[in-house]
Design brief:
This protein is an alpha/beta fold and 434 residues long. It has three domains: 261 residues, Rossmann fold (3-Layer(aba) Sandwich); 96 residues, no CATH class; 46 residues, no CATH class. 40% of the residues lie in helices and 14% in strands. The longest helix has 25 residues. The protein is globular.
């Protein structure tokens, strides 16, 4: 959903991020190949993909492109803005202001192209009727999405249903497509539905203001069968996309290997075959990193720390995004450059800092309270767990189990087992204290 002017909180609710023009142009050129192509934009936002699609069709010789492009968006303000944007450019297109998951493919003639930047809303915000409609749409073609799936996943599946057998899908997606467990059914679906599936990855962040890594998904119903990878430095390199040779990748399991260089992956495979590699687990502990739920507040750069008058000793360096790593080796020089120039310093302090009424830390934490940081999901649950341990954790699990439709049967059983373990730990702790 490419939206530039929607207010911050509203944009977060819609999962909307402004799409760089280089990406819009590259996807339109790749996907739209004939003056007769019909184009679907299922989450049109303020119509940047719609406008570029119309221009692309005209450049190919289409006489009435407005009759070939259909835009859909759930937000009335975005639909109104899209109409204005198109009118200002002397263009028009059919715009349906409706939940995309309410549309039925049989009511439309098949499209050759589905293009856009679907909304990215994590599972704890993507809930209620909207989530159920999305999961139902995916299930209609045999794709079972768990309650942990973000909003983009059903968009990919549902948009594919509107395409002709030889149709093409060109989407901007989070890198969760490659590595998330919940995206496994989507990966399998793409390989079964399309002949060729190409994923474009970037060394540099596509959306600097968003804490996510981004990939481009290019799925072609008539292409040579297989999974392919294209690796670029940044969006400026997209001009070479149509002619750059893709490299075949393994379609089994996760696709996270696409985030590493082809040469590096090949070298690792050779070393592994010769028995010259050790598992990282043999020499280090591997675990999920920190999750703040409010990186804009808790993760700062050196300049921001100085501006707020905070003490550097309160912050711990951390890798916040994979794109901050220059390669397999992070030297002291690399780390020093990162600390000096990027947002990679994590505030590490307990709630006791609020009592420091006159210090810069106290002022900064109270500012966070005024912004409502403490009411965020992660802050609330983390505080409860720190204060009450297993009791709070068991209560949180009970709340999750009561929220019908969030989890599928397998996940429900796993959560019930976790709840029982937490309750046993609580009982055992009570006995030891007695």
């Amino acid at each position: 959903m490419a939206v530039a002017s929607v207010a911050g909180e509203r944009r977060k609710q819609l999962g909307a991020f402004y799409t760089p023009p280089e990406i819009v142009d590259a996807l339109a050129k790749w996907a739209i190949r004939s003056p007769t192509d019909r184009v679907l934009e299922p989450a049109s936002g303020e119509a940047v993909f719609v406008l570029e699609s119309l221009r692309r069709l005209r450049s190919l010789g289409a006489l009435h492109p407005a009759e070939q492009v259909l835009a859909v968006d759930i937000d009335p303000d975005s639909c109104a803005s899209a109409t204005d944007v198109l009118a200002a450019a002397g263009e028009r297109a059919s715009i349906i202001c409706r939940d995309f998951f309410e549309l039925v493919p049989d009511e439309q003639a098949p499209f050759m192209v589905a293009i856009g930047n679907p909304p990215y809303v994590r599972y704890h915000r993507f809930r209620g009727d909207a989530r159920e409609r999305g999961r139902s749409a995916a299930a209609s073609v045999g794709v079972t999405l768990s309650g942990l799936a973000s909003s983009w996943a059903p968009f990919v599946v549902h948009a594919s249903r509107f395409l002709a057998p030889s149709g093409r899908l060109a989407f901007v997606l989070p890198a969760e497509l490659l590595r998330a467990d919940y995206a496994g059914p989507v990966r399998e679906f793409l390989l079964e539905r399309f002949g060729s599936v190409t994923v474009v990855t970037f060394e540099r962040a596509v959306f600097p203001g968003a804490a996510i890594d981004t990939v481009l998904l290019l799925a072609d119903g008539s292409g040579s069968r297989g999974l392919h990878s294209v690796q670029l430095n940044d969006v400026a390199d997209l001009s070479s996309l149509p002619t750059r040779a893709s490299v075949s990748a393994s379609p089994i399991g996760r696709w996270s290997g696409m985030l590493t260089s082809i040469e590096g992956a090949s070298a690792l495979d050779r070393l592994r075959a010769r028995g010259l590699l050790r598992r990282i687990g043999d020499v280090a502990t591997v675990d999920i990193g920190f999750v703040s739920g409010a990186n804009k507040f808790f993760v700062l750069d050196a300049a921001e720390i100085k501006r707020h008058g905070l003490s550097r000793r309160r912050f711990q360096p951390a890798i916040v995004r994979p794109s901050q790593l220059p390669g397999a080796v992070l030297t002291e020089h690399d780390a020093a450059q990162l600390i000096a120039s990027d947002d990679c310093l994590v505030l590490n302090v307990s709630a006791s800092g609020l009592a420091e009424q006159t210090t810069a830390l106290g002022r900064y934490l109270r500012r966070g309270q005024r912004l409502g940081i403490h009411r965020g999901y992660k802050c609330r649950t983390d505080m409860a767990l720190r204060q009450n341990g297993p009791e709070a954790a068991a209560a949180l699990v009970d709340d999750l189990l009561m929220n019908e439709g969030v989890l599928d049967p397998i996940e429900l059983e796993q959560v019930r087992r976790a709840r029982d373990l937490l309750r046993n730990r609580r009982v055992n702790r009570g006995r030891s204290q007695a």
